[in-house]
Each structure stands twice: as C-alpha cells, then as structure tokens.
Known about the structure:
Blueprint: H1 2-19, E1 25-30, H2 35-44, E2 50-59, E3 74-82
Antiparallel strand pairs: 1-3, 2-3
Amino acid sequence: MFLEYSNFLFHLFFEFERILKxxxxxxxxxxxxxxxxxxxxxxxxxxxxLNLDNWLTYVRAKGRGxxxxxxxxxxxxxxxxxxxxYKWNSVEYLR
Length: 95
C-alpha cells in the first residue's frame, strides 16, 4: 500500500508541476496517516520544484458517519506551491 500510494503521489506531483504556473499553488487534502508518505515523496523527488508551504488542520464539528462508526473529526490540508517566489499569507483557522 505504501509503495502504491507513493507512486500515485509522484505521478500526481509530476502533473502538478507540469500544469502549474511558476507561482501557482495547489491545496491537497489527505488523511493524517498519509502525511508522512507525502513528505517522503516531496523529499525524495526535490527536483520536482514543488514546496510544501503550509499545513492546515480543518476540524469538523462531527465526524462523518459518527452515529454508527468512529471517524476522524479533522482533515489535513497541505498547501503546495511551485517555484521559490510564492509568498504565503497566513490564515489563522478554517471553520
């Protein structure tokens, strides 16, 4: 599973780099358990010219399907930009 997801991310990031303008950005939503894999792929393939600029945690009031099943009540949102010229403006929280 780890290798499959790593390959998927590499191809996804390759396409991000191809379609984004030099100062373009992308917001990637992923589960908390997948973040180490995202970091690993970005570190291994640093020639992709993509940078992780920010990481937000969106907290929901109630998890999906929480009536019957235990689900995560938050979602990780990674902000990835192309090039070194992007300037991030801070966001305190999302609600």
